[in-house]
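Fold this complex.
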Amino acid sequence: MNGTRTWKKLTALLAATALTAGLLAGCGGGTGETQNTESGQPDPSPSQSQTAETRTVTDMSGVEVEIPAEVTQYADAWMAHNEVIVMLDEAEGLVATVQTPQSAAWMYFVQPNMYNALSTFGDEFNLEELVALEPDVVFASNEELRDQLASVGIPLVNVMFTNYDEMKQSITLTGEVLGGDAVQMAEDYVAYLDDVLAQLEELVSSLSEEEKPTVLHGNSVYDLNIDGSNTIIDAWITAAGGTNAAAEVEGNMQTVTMEQILVWDPDVIITGTKSEVEEIMNDPEWAGLTAVQNGQVYTNPKGVFSWDRYGVEEALQLQWVANLLHPELFNIDIRTQVKDFYETFLHYTLTDEQVELILNAEAPQ
Amino acid sequence: MDREYSAVQTAPDPVQPSAYLHDYREKRKRAVWVALGFLAVLIAVVCISFLLGRYPVTPDTVVRMLWYKLWGLSGDWTTVEETVVLNIRLPRILAAVAVGSALSVSGAAYQGIFKNPMVSPDILGASAGASVGAALALLLGWSTAMVQASAFVLGIGAVALAYTLSRSIGRGNNMVLLLVLCGMVVSTLFQAGVSIIKYLADPDSTLPEITYWLMGSISKVGYNDLAYFLIPYLIGVIPLLLLRWKLNVLSFGDEEAKALGVNTEQTRVICIVCATLLTAATVSISGTVGWVGLMIPHLVRFLVGPNYKAVLPLSLLGGAAFMLIVDNFCRCMLAYEIPLGILTSIIGGPFFVLILYQRKGEA
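Structure:
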């Protein structure tokens, strides 16, 4: 649950209700003039963009976007991409985000600069508020805001990715947009990810199809909510030497029937909801599954972002899953890897206890 | 049966009663045949439903399992097969039958109470109230049992609110109209409540849950849920079936009903309470499943005429069979689970139009 955000929204709604009541009460009173006094904002003329130099980048949707030569302030409309920002810029220039301390506890814990950014109301920006914050660019995962933002002189950079090649491209692009040290950091990350993928490729090439366990993954598997093919989840299952048990279903977060799960009979179950491991292990309906009988039911680790979904910790997810599925072939100490990764890429030194919390998908303490 | 007849028999013209009587007997005969037909369809669909599913279990294993289990014997099937048939298919079949019949009966009852064929079970806000209850519970991360309880309580609460409002505004005149208006107001209010909760919900986890719940599904109904459901179900269905002839009397209008010695207000309250219990209990285990409560009573009326003595029990059978057929599509058509509410509309809509076409010119 995300308490603060919920309360913020609720307060706003109450305020709106009060306003309505006020309007109704004042209907006959002719008090219309007082309403305009608070709009003493600065002149709404578009800021420096006309005079300053610009450069052009090609974003993930193939659009050539003209952006200011120097990008110091930006907003991020894609939850997962906020982690890229934490990695490349320590979120220093972030003025507005769709993240909240409740939805990403570790992100705010590891990088307190996140608190300087305005969290949105719901998952969309209030356009006026956004313009008032004067971001140089806005990062997003879709095209919805592009035209609207263009009309107020803010370029939108689409950073969406659905597989590892695109992910590397997207991170390089973000580095390019931010400039300075970010370029090098993006390069380092891409090299790291490449290295992990190369190791895994070698591992997978040595496996026959029978040696690849079937993996069922979902945000809440016990609620019959699973992830199918054409997703980043399918990508890491395959890359780490497994087979997606739910490959015949397409897309993220699909609801299926219990019978269907019994038909798939996965070797390994990974769920995004911690409490479900115990529920699955103890439910007689699930008892017939191979994964349950062998005790192969796990919670997916969750750190700055959920490892299984689109963040930069994908690189850790790959190693964690490969180690889980093929412990004898991919023998690494995942705890050391997590510590090193956080030190190098997320600018934070984790304690041993914190590593355990992340591996168990628990909130920071 | 004899009550209506005796009411008609007092008519002055000696030719008329026998004509009425003839017509009445024809209709009654027809109703019996339709009832037998519905029952046969329902039994057939229940049997077939045991054999349908994504997990392959051979028909003879299913038959053997059910037969052996009935006598408490064990057999040579696997535990997974037993789980599939007894813990997944059986509760789901029971749930579909219960939900379909409850929605149809309460729909038919509401239509009788308000003398309006366009009324559906959510007319007084039961569905909207239950939706708020469930959405709120999901937002607060409560357990499944609490979600159901909260839906049930708020479903009843919404109708109680509508009723109290109408009583306090009205002074005995136009009670039915006022009740419907108050029901609409309460419904709208609670629907706004659902929107607020959806707006507050986390778009990555809670919101999809709420949306999915609102679309309706009986995929997660287990024996425990059914046991709890049985109480309001019986309390709702039995009085309605016993009082169904009074719905006919209500349809004459309040004055005529009073002249016939029926306490209209009391009858109306009893029927509203029962129908509301049914609706709220149904929504609490299955989410909002639209269309059934409106369509099935209509279908029945097309077949046997507007006599509630036949309409109510036939709606019960027809609703059960229809819901079971639709739910079989939900769970078998794709690897995905299709929300029930979507398919009842997609299958129900065209089906309804088809019936309208066939009856063109008749009714």
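The two ends of chain A are 17 Å apart (CA to CA).
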